[in-house]
Design goal:
The complex is a heterotrimer. By secondary structure, chain A is mostly helical. Chain A has one domain (about 35-310): ABC transporter involved in vitamin B12 uptake, BtuC (Orthogonal Bundle), CATH 1.10.3470. Chain A has 15 helices and two strands. In chain A, strands 1-2 form a two-stranded antiparallel ribbon. Chain B is α/β, with parallel strands linked by helices. Chain B has twelve helices and 14 strands. Chain B has helices spanning about 1-25, 60-75, 110-125, 135-150, 180-195, 210-225, 245-255, 265-275, 295-300, 320-335, 340-360, 365-375, and strands at about 45-50, 100-105, 130-135, 155, 170-175, 200-205, 230-235, 255-260, 285, 305-310, 375-380, 390, 405-410, 410-415. In chain B, strand 8 (about 255-260), helix 8 and strand 9 (about 285) form a beta-alpha-beta unit. The longest helix of chain B has 26 residues, at about 1-25. By secondary structure, chain C is mainly alpha-helical. Chain C has eleven helices and two strands, in the order ααααββααααααα. Chain C is globular and about 60 Å long. Classes of the chains: A mainly alpha, B alpha/beta, C mainly alpha. Chains A and B meet through helix 1, helix 2, helix 3, helix 6 and helix 7 of A and helix 1, helix 2, strand 2, helix 3 and helix 4 of B.
Chain lengths: ~350, ~425, ~290
C-alpha cells in the first residue's frame, strides 16, 4: 500500500473528516473558552496524549502497563532538575527526559515482557512505587517537598507563558503528533504483527514472529511521548512533587482513559479523556465539596459498568455498530439482488 | 516503509506548526481569559474560595477546618458586639454596607494538582476575591501559584512549610508561624530547661514529606546551635504499617528528647508501639497528628503526657475572652469540646480577611491585597495567643508566638512560655508501668 | 545491637504472617480462576470496619465477631463474583483488571460516604498488650494471635485444597476448567467456592488486624498493594508460595527498615520483588 493511497483512503473515511473538523474546531477554542474551562481542556488534551501513548504498549502490544506515570514524572523531573542544577533551558530538559524515559522503558520492557498479564501489571506498579520512593527521598531533587520552577518571562524559548493559550496549542500539537504515531504504528508491520498475535497466537508463533523487539519499540515510544507530556506539565504548572508525578492512580487513570475510549483504536484515548477528565473534575466540583466521597462512588460504578458492558470502549462500540450496519446493508443489498435476479 | 512513514509524520508536524504559527497572530499575545471578580460597587455577597482535602486520609482535618471557617464566617456576617474581634460587631462588612461573605468550598483531595485545578475554577468560574487554605503545604504551593498569576490574594490559614512565603510572591499571606519558627521556639523551650532536666541528646523521627523534612531541617539547625548531640535522625514513609524498627532504634539510642513530626495515623501507631515495647522517651511533637481529635479517641488514656509545640491551646480561654467565647460557640455548634491550633486559626482566618476587605472598602482583589499587606491587628483582637498580625514584605506574620503544651487530664494545657502557662510540665514522661 | 536485632526479627516474622493471611485469599481466587482482585485491599478495609461497628453495637470484640465478619466478607466475595466477575470471565484481561479497579474505588468512596474519613480503633480490645518473652523480646499479643491464626488458616486451606474431594475439584478447575467440566465438576459452583474461601480469608485477616491497627477508608491501599506483591512473589495460585513470600517480605521490611532507614523499607521490598520476578517470572512457586 503506497503512501498516497494510504492518505487518500484515510480522507475517504468519515471518521477522519469528523476528527479533522474537530481539530480545526479545537484550534479556535481558546477564543471561546477561557479560564478554568480552558485549563480543563488542556488537561483533557494532555491525558488524551498520555492515553494514546499508553495505547501503543497496552492496546497494540497487549502488555498492560500500570506504570506509565513513571515516564510522565521523569519528563517533569528531568526538566525541573536540569534547570535547577545546571540552568538548562526547558527544551533541553525535555530532550533529557526523552532520553531517560527511553532508557527506563527499555530496562522495564526487556526483563518484564515475558511476564504474563497480571504479573506484568503488578511489576509496572512496583517500578512506579520504587521510583516514587527514590524521588521522595532524593533531597537534591526536592525530595518530598517537590520542585518549583522559577517564574520567567513569557516566551517560547522559556517554555513559559502568562496566558494559557500558547500552552493549549503546544499540547494540541503533542496530541496530533501522538495520534500520527498511532496511525503509523497501526498500519506498519509492527501493528500487523500485534494484531496477528492477538487474533491467533498459535499461528503467529508458528510463523516465528519475534515480537520482543517490536514490543520494546512500542514501550520506548510510549515512554518517550509520555515524558514529553510530563515536561509540558511542569512548564505549565511550574511545580512537581512525587505524588503529582508518580502516583499509581495516575497510571491507572491513563490506562482507564485508553480502555474506556477504546483500546487499540486511534481515537479511543481522545474520546476516553473527553469523558473521564470532565467526569472526575465535574464530580469533584459538584460533589467533592461536601467531602462525602459520593463522587468516588459514582466514578467507581462507571468504571465497573464500562468494564463489563463495553470493554471495547466507546470507539469499539461505535465500530461494532457501524460494522453491523454495514453488514446489514450488504445483506439487504444481496437480498434485493437475489430477488431481482 | 519506515522512510515513508517518517515522511508522513514530518508533513503532519509541519502543517500543525504552521497552523499554530498563523493562529498565534489571531490569538495575539494577550491573555485569552477575563477574570470575573467582584465589581467595585456595592455587593450583597463577597465570595471567598476555600480549598481543603475533604476526602482522603487528611479529610478529618479538612472537614474540621471547614467547620471552623464557617463559624468565622458566621461571626463576620452576624452581629456579635460583645466579641472583641474584627468585623464581629455589625452584620457583614461594615464599610461595604453590610455585604456578607460567602465561602465556596473546594476539595483538593490532598493533591497539589487538584488543588491548583480547584483554585483555577474558584477564581475564574466562581469569581472569588480571595482564596484560603489548605492544610497540606504542597496544595498551598500550587494553588497559591495560580492565585499569584491571577492577582488574587491567598491567605494561608495554617500550612507551615517555610518556602511558601519565600518565593517572592506578592499575593500570599500567612497568619501563623512556619516550621522553621516552630523549630526555633521548640528549642527556645528546650534551651530554657536544658540544665533543669539535663538534656544532652536528641533524636528525630519524622514522616518523609515536606512537613516532616522541613521540621527536621529546623530541628537540626537549632540542635547544632544549642550544642545538643543528635543521636538518631529517622525519616519514615507516611502511613506506614509498622513503627517497630524505628522504636527499636530509639530504644538503642536512648535520647533525652525525641522530636516527632507525624500525622494522626503514624502518631497513634508510634505511641502504641512505644507502649508495646514498654518504652516511653520524652517526646516533643510538631502538633499535626498529635493534636487531632482522633489521636485522643484512639489512644484514650495513653495520650496523657504528650508534649507538643502548638499554635494555640484551649486553656488560653482562661486568659483571653475571645478564645473563651469562640471555644464555647464552637462546642455549641459542633459538639467539639476544644479548639486546637488548626481550628483556632481557621476561625480567625475569615476575620482577618474580613478586616482587610473592610479597610479596602471594596471587593477588588488588588485592593484587598494591599489592605492585607497593611494589616495591623493587636493581640486583644485575636483568638490566637500572638502579639498581633503584621505581615512582612513576604507576607509572613512576624508577630507570632508558639506554645509548648502537654496533655494533662485528657486535654492539652500550656506549660510554656510563662505568660501563657497554666500548668507545670511533667518531665520526663512517666513510664507505662507507672500510669 | 544484637538485642535489638532479635526484636526486629521477631516483629518481622509476626508481620510476615499477617501479610500471608491478607494475601491468602487473593492467591486462591487467582489460582482457581485467573482473576486478580485489585479490590482485595478494600475487602480487608470492609472487614475492619465491620469488626469496628460490631464492637460498637452489639459490643462484640473482633476476636469474638470473627466468624460473623468472615461470613459477611465471604458473601461480599460471592456478590462480587455474581454481579461483576461472572460477566468478564470471557472478556479480555484488561476488562477483568478494570472491573476490580472500579470496585476498589467504589468501595473506598462508599466507606467514606457511609462512615466518614475519621480514624477509628477498637477501644479496649480483648487481646492487648504484649508478652515479654525475654528482656529484649516483647511480642505484641494481638499480632501473635493474628500470626497464629494465619498459620492455622494456611494449613487448613492447604489441607482442604489437597486432601478433600472438593479441594481437589477446585484444583482441577484451576488446571483446566474445560476438562474439569467434562469430568462432571460444576465449574460455576467451584468459582463461587473460590470466592467464598478467598474473601472469607481476607475477612478473617481484617477482623484480626482491627484488633491492633487503626481503621479508615484508605487502609486498604497499603495492605492491598503489599498483598499483590506477596502473591506475585510467591506465585499466583500457590499457597506454599504465598506463605514463604509473606515471611520474606515481613523480614525484608523489618530488617531493611532497621539497617537502611524506614524511608527505604518498601524500596527494598519492591526491589526484591522486581528482581525475583525478573529472574523467575512465575514467582517462587507459581505455575509456568
Amino acid at each position: 500500500m503506497t503512501d498516497n493511497n494510504l492518505i487518500k483512503k484515510l480522507w475517504q473515511r468519515p471518521s477522519t473528516i469528523i476528527v479533522t473538523l474537530l481539530f480545526l474546531f479545537l484550534l479556535v477554542v481558546p477564543k471561546i473558552v477561557t479560564g478554568y474551562y480552558l485549563h480543563a481542556v488542556i488537561l483533557i488534551i494532555m491525558y488524551a496524549t498520555l492515553g494514546t501513548a499508553w495505547n501503543w504498549i497496552g492496546g497494540f502490544a497487549g502488555q498492560m502497563s500500570l506504570g506509565n506515570a513513571v515516564y510522565f514524572g521523569l519528563g517533569a523531573y528531568a526538566t525541573a532538575c536540569s534547570q535547577l542544577w545546571w540552568g538548562w533551558n526547558p527544551w533541553l530538559g525535555l530532550l533529557l527526559g526523552i532520553v531517560l524515559s527511553g532508557i527506563v522503558a527499555f530496562l522495564i520492557g526487556l526483563p518484564c515482557f515475558r511476564l504474563k498479564g497480571h504479573y506484568f501489571a503488578i511489576a509496572t506498579m512496583a517500578v512506579g512505587e520504587i521510583v516514587n520512593i527514590i524521588f521522595t527521598n532524593w533531597d537534591a531533587a526536592g525530595g518530598a517537598s517537590g520542585l518549583y520552577l522559577t517564574i520567567k518571562e513569557s516566551s517560547l524559548l522559556n517554555f513559559q507563558f502568562a496566558s494559557k493559550v500558547p500552552y493549549f496549542y503546544i499540547v494540541l500539537v503533542l496530541l496530533v503528533l501522538a495520534t500520527a504515531i498511532t496511525i503509523w504504528l497501526k498500519n506498519s508491520r509492527s501493528g500487523y504483527y500485534f494484531r496477528a498475535i492477538k487474533e491467533d497466537p498459535e499461528a503467529a508463533k508458528a510463523l516465528g514472529i519475534n515480537l520482543v523487539n517490536r514490543k520494546l519499540m512500542a514501550i520506548i515510544l510510549s515512554g518517550t511521548v509520555s515524558s514529553v507530556a510530563g515536561s509540558f506539565w511542569i512548564n505549565y504548572m511550574l511545580f512537581i512533587d512525587p505524588p503529582s508525578a508518580f502516583l499509581i492512580m495516575t497510571s491507572v487513570q491513563i490506562a482507564l482513559i485508553a480502555v474506556m475510549g477504546g483500546m487499540g483504536t486511534v481515537w479511543g484515548p481522545i474520546v476516553g479523556a473527553s469523558i473521564i477528565i470532565p467526569l472526575s473534575e465535574g464530580s469533584r466540583m459538584f460533589l467533592g465539596g461536601t467531602g462525602s466521597g459520593i463522587d468516588l462512588v459514582i466514578y467507581g460504578l462507571l468504571i465497573m459498568l464500562v468494564a463489563i458492558y463495553q470493554p471495547g470502549g466507546i470507539v469499539g462500540a461505535v465500530n461494532n455498530y457501524t460494522k453491523k450496519r454495514q453488514s446489514k446493508k450488504k445483506a439487504t443489498l444481496k437480498a434485493v439482488q437475489e430477488v431481482s435476479e | 516503509m519506515l522512510k515513508k512513514s517518517k515522511k508522513k509524520l514530518a508533513v503532519l508536524s509541519v502543517i500543525s506548526l504552521a497552523l499554530i504559527g498563523s493562529l498565534f497572530l489571531f490569538a495575539g499575545c494577550g491573555s485569552g481569559e477575563t477574570t470575573e471578580t467582584g465589581d467595585v460597587t456595592d455587593q450583597e455577597i463577597i465570595k471567598i474560595g476555600v480549598i481543603y482535602a475533604l476526602t482522603g486520609s487528611s479529610a478529618p482535618t479538612g472537614l474540621d477546618q471547614k467547620k471552623a471557617i464557617e463559624l468565622g464566617g458566621e461571626i463576620v456576617n452576624g452581629d456579635y458586639p460583645d466579641l472583641n474581634l474584627p468585623m464581629a460587631a455589625g452584620e457583614g462588612i461594615t464599610n461595604l454596607n453590610g455585604a456578607k461573605i460567602e465561602f465556596v468550598f473546594a476539595n483538593s483531595e490532598g493533591s497539589a494538582e487538584k488543588g491548583a485545578s480547584e483554585a483555577e475554577r474558584l477564581i475564574n468560574q466562581e469569581g472569588v476575591v480571595a482564596l484560603m487554605g489548605c492544610y497540606q503545604s504542597s496544595v498551598v504551593a500550587s494553588a497559591s501559584q495560580v492565585a499569584e498569576r491571577a492577582g488574587i490574594p491567598f491567605f494561608v490559614v495554617e500550612s507551615s512549610s517555610p518556602t511558601l512565603t519565600e518565593r517572592g510572591f506578592k499575593n500570599i499571606f500567612r497568619q501563623g508561624p512556619h516550621d522553621a519558627m516552630f523549630g526555633d521556639y521548640t528549642f527556645n523551650y528546650l534551651n530554657s530547661v536544658k540544665n533543669q532536666y539535663d538534656i544532652k541528646t536528641v533524636a528525630m523521627i519524622y514522616e518523609n514529606t515536606a512537613f516532616g523534612k522541613d521540621s527536621a531541617a529546623s530541628w537540626t539547625k537549632n540542635a547544632e546551635a544549642g550544642g545538643y548531640e543528635i543521636v538518631a535522625s529517622m525519616p519514615y514513609p507516611a502511613n506506614t504499617t509498622s513503627m517497630n524498627s524505628e522504636v527499636q532504634k530509639l530504644k538503642a539510642a536512648d535520647p533525652d528528647v525525641v522530636l516527632a513530626a507525624s500525622y494522626v495515623s503514624d502518631a497513634t501507631l508510634l505511641m502504641k508501639t512505644f507502649k508495646e515495647n514498654n518504652y516511653m522517651p520524652t517526646l516533643i511533637a510538631q502538633d499535626a497528628g498529635f493534636v487531632e481529635q482522633d489521636y485522643f479517641k484512639i489512644l484514650g488514656a495513653d495520650a496523657e503526657y504528650t508534649i507538643t509545640r502548638e499554635a494555640y491551646c484551649s486553656d488560653y480561654s482562661a486568659k483571653n475572652e475571645n478564645a473563651k467565647k469562640v471555644g464555647e460557640m464552637f462546642n455549641e455548634k459542633y459538639g467539639i469540646a476544644n479548639l486546637n491550633g488548626n481550628t483556632a486559626r481557621a476561625v480567625q482566618a475569615p476575620l482577618i480577611l474580613a478586616d482587610a476587605i473592610n479597610r479596602a472598602g471594596s471587593a477588588d482583589p488588588a485592593a484587598i491585597r494591599d489592605a492585607l499587606a497593611a494589616t495591623n491587628i493587636s493581640c486583644d483582637q485575636l483568638i490566637m495567643p500572638w502579639s498581633g498580625i503584621k505581615f512582612d514584605e513576604n507576607g509572613q506574620n512576624q508577630a507570632i508566638n508558639v506554645l509548648i503544651c502537654q496533655v494533662q487530664g485528657g486535654k492539652y494545657v500550656t506549660v510554656w512560655p510563662e505568660e501563657y502557662a497554666t500548668a507545670d510540665v511533667v518531665w520526663p514522661y512517666p513510664a507505662w508501668s507507672e500510669r | 545491637m544484637s538485642e535489638v536485632i532479635l526484636q526486629v526479627v521477631g516483629s518481622g516474622v509476626l508481620w510476615g504472617f499477617i501479610f500471608v493471611l491478607s494475601a491468602l485469599g487473593l492467591t486462591i481466587i487467582f489460582g482457581v480462576m485467573d482473576i486478580c482482585n485489585f479490590a482485595h485491599g478494600d475487602f480487608l478495609m470492609m472487614a475492619m470496619f465491620l469488626a469496628f461497628w460490631l464492637s460498637v453495637w452489639p459490643g462484640l470484640d473482633p476476636m469474638l465477631s470473627l466468624p460473623i465478619v468472615a461470613i459477611a466478607i465471604a458473601l461480599l466475595g460471592v456478590a462480587t463474583y455474581w454481579l461483576l466477575i461472572r460477566h468478564v470471565l470471557k472478556a479480555s484481561g484488561m476488562a477483568q483488571i478494570f472491573v476490580t479497579f472500579g470496585l476498589m474505588i467504589f468501595l473506598r468512596g462508599l466507606a467514606q460516604a457511609l462512615w466518614g474519613a475519621d480514624y477509628r480503633s477498637i477501644t479496649d480490645p480483648l487481646v492487648q498488650g504484649s508478652w515479654n518473652i525475654m528482656p529484649n523480646l516483647s511480642l505484641s499479643k494481638p499480632q501473635v494471635v493474628a500470626a497464629l491464626c494465619a498459620i492455622v488458616a494456611t494449613i487448613l486451606v492447604y489441607l482442604f485444597m489437597t486432601k478433600t474431594r472438593t479441594g481437589l475439584a477446585l484444583q482441577a478447575v484451576s488446571e483446566d476448567k474445560d476438562a474439569a467440566s467434562l469430568m462432571g465438576i460444576p465449574v460455576q459452583k467451584m468459582y463461587i467456592l473460590a470466592w467464598i474461601i478467598g474473601a472469607g480469608c481476607v475477612g478473617i485477616a481484617g477482623g484480626l488486624l482491627s484488633e491492633f491497627y487503626y481503621i479508615y477508608p484508605e487502609v486498604g491501599m497499603v495492605y492491598g498493594f503489599l498483598a499483590f506483591i506477596t502473591v506475585a512473589l510467591g506465585g499466583f495460585g500457590s499457597i506454599k508460595g504465598v506463605f514463604y513470600a509473606g515471611l520474606i517480605i515481613g523480614m525484608v521490611q523489618a530488617l531493611g527498615g532497621f539497617f537502611f532507614g524506614s524511608a527505604y523499607q518498601y524500596l527494598l521490598v519492591y526491589g526484591l520483588y522486581f528482581v525475583c520476578v525478573v529472574v523467575r517470572p512465575q514467582g517462587l512457586m507459581g505455575r509456568r
